[in-house]
Amino acid sequence: MTGRSVPEWEGATPDAAIPPRVKLRIWEHHEGRCYLTGRKIMPGDPYDFDHITALCNGGRHAESNLAPVLREAHKAKTADDRAMKAKVDRVRKKHLGLTPPSRMPGSKNSKIKRKINGQTVDRLTGEPIGGYRRG
């Protein structure tokens, strides 16, 4: 026995509604405080129940991963979570080779390069492309 008389609630799906009895247990566990700011949530304050570890970052839709949070702090945390997930996805795509390399003119990935004297040459063959001005 784990010492807990009530089993932990876990949503059947990631968007399953949190039952009122579970919300009450979460509220009491956090003593009615916003877990991000530490401020006591007063009657009339807009608040939500947020995933401590976001679902998109591998968190569970379970009672132990939920906490009350003031709405303004929740908006800021959600924006940070989404930005972090987007960054992770970009890096993963790059490392897996799913993102084509940059074709910025003059970069090492471009087909041409400009020499110090101003001449433009084909990077593969070394042949001059077009004319160039002499100083």
From TrEMBL:
Name recorded for this polypeptide: HNH endonuclease
Source organism superkingdom: Bacteria
InterPro entries: HNH_nuc (IPR003615)
Region listing for Disordered, in residue ranges: 93-135
